[in-house]
Amino acid sequence: MSSKVGGMATHEEILLKHQQHLQRQRDGIAYRMKKLAAKQAEITKKTNAVKEKIKKKYVDMKRVLDEDLQITLSQLDTEYEATEKLVEDRIEDCYHLTQELDQELSNIGAQVNTQKIEIQQLFVLSETRISKTLKLTDPDMIQMDDFKNEQLLSLTINLLLFIRSQVPVTKKLFQTYAADVVLEAETAHPKLIISPKGDSVTYTDTWQDVPETPTRFDTTLNVISKQGFSDGRQYWEVDVSGKTYWELGLTYPSIPRKGQEEDSWLGRGKESWCVEYFNGDYTAWHGGVQHELPLLAGKQFTRIGVYCSFPGGLVCFLGADTVTPLHCFCAGTFTDTLHQALCPGHDNEGTNWKSLKICDASRSAPVL
Tens of pLDDT along 170-207? Predict the structure, then answer.
């Protein structure tokens, strides 16, 4: 009997084909797992190699600084030893003179019958010797090269300032990725005031008379940047000083703008990533998942930095003052253009009226 009826495959043949298809899929997935494991090993190897190279450079820098320190201290020690020897020699000169004077004092009784002129000659000789010794051993005649030492100290201070200006090196690297961020007023919630330059956002209790646009947030106190980016690396900083509540991060343009959905809050949907600060506590958000950051509780920063690497699929937040890591999201692959996003928060019982201001991220914050 034929295995086919009217040219149609039998039930057994269909199951066999399906089984073969699933097996091929399983083999493909197993191969993919193998490739991912190899990729993981490659990433680990590359990361460790870079870390070792950087650690070696820091060891080299420490060695160079240690050698320079030893040269400087050795030079100062040489000068000190020379000066110390001079002082000891002058003390010895004074000691010998006191011994001679003691001897002369003891001989005076035996010189009662000595002629007057001889006594006068001895007196003159003693006075001359004493005067010469006192002049030679004057402490004010022994000087350190204070000017040279001040120059040495000044050069050391300048070296320290230079090193401080170059570290942390991570911050210096981020500064090379500094982005020019301008806020789009047409996206801002009506209770937000955007500065004319688009570099700051301020909460107000007054509902602003602004045109209704499809891009404007009407529930959450958000505003996003005019320009987005879809490649490379970008870094930006926001001045958060004096604030008790704020949220900031990155978002796709597809983030919901209207209605009561919580997804329109930064980090509550899959379209955005953010760090939130509220009354001393920090929380990172993405996809509605809350990441509490208890180790940062109570810490306050003047600036918050956000670094995004499109190739690496990373969104990293840091306290820019001290380059303190806050949280890092690994998105893997971004699927759309990213925009910077800010939420200055409500008034928080009168404690949160200050603006969020975008900073020049290519320059460090001034030391107060």
Answer: 888 899 999 999 999 999 999 999 999 999 999 999 99
Strand arrangement, sheet containing 272-278: 223-224, 339-343, 245-251, 272-278, 281-286, 289-292
As a whole number, the mean pLDDT across the chain is 87
Nearest by Cα to 176 from 184, 166, 186, 185: 166
User: Going by DSSP bridges, is the β-strand pair 324-330/314-319 parallel, antiparallel, or unpaired?
Assistant: antiparallel
pLDDT tens per residue across span 33-63: 998 899 899 989 988 988 898 888 888 888 8
Q: Whole-model pTM above 0.90?
A: no
Q: Residue 368 pLDDT more than 50?
A: no
The phi and psi torsions of 255 (rounded to 5 degrees) equal -60, 135
For the chain, what is the largest distance between any 2 Cα atoms, rounded to a whole number of angstroms? Answer: 163
- Name the DSSP letter for residue 273: E
Q: Where are the domains of the chain?
A: 17-137, 175-358
**What is d(CA 306, CA 318) in angstroms, rounded to the nearest whole number?**
7
Beta carbons within 8 Å of 296's beta carbon, 6+ residues apart:
282, 319, 324, 326
The candidate with the shortest Cα–Cα distance to 344, out of 273, 243, 256, is 243
pLDDT tens-digit readout, 117-146: 555 655 666 677 777 777 777 787 777 777
DSSP strand pairing (281-286 vs 289-292): antiparallel
**Contact by Cβ (8 Å): 175, 318:** no
Cα–Cα distance measured from residue 266 to residue 345, given in angstroms and rounded to the nearest whole number: 12
Residue 288, Ramachandran bin (φ over 0: left; ψ between -120 and 50: alpha; else beta): left
224 in helix, strand or coil? strand
Distance CA 351, CA 277 (A): 13
Interstrand relation of 245-251 and 233-239 (parallel, antiparallel or unpaired): unpaired
DSSP count for the chain of H helices, then E strands: 4, 13
Select the CATH number that applies to the domain covering 175-358 from these four: 2.60.120.10, 3.40.50.620, 2.60.120.920, 3.90.79.10. 2.60.120.920
* CA gap 270, 335 in Å, rounded: 11
Three-state secondary-structure class, residue 111? helix
Beta bridge pairs of residue 292: 283
User: Cα–Cα distance between 125 and 60 in angstroms, integer?
Assistant: 65
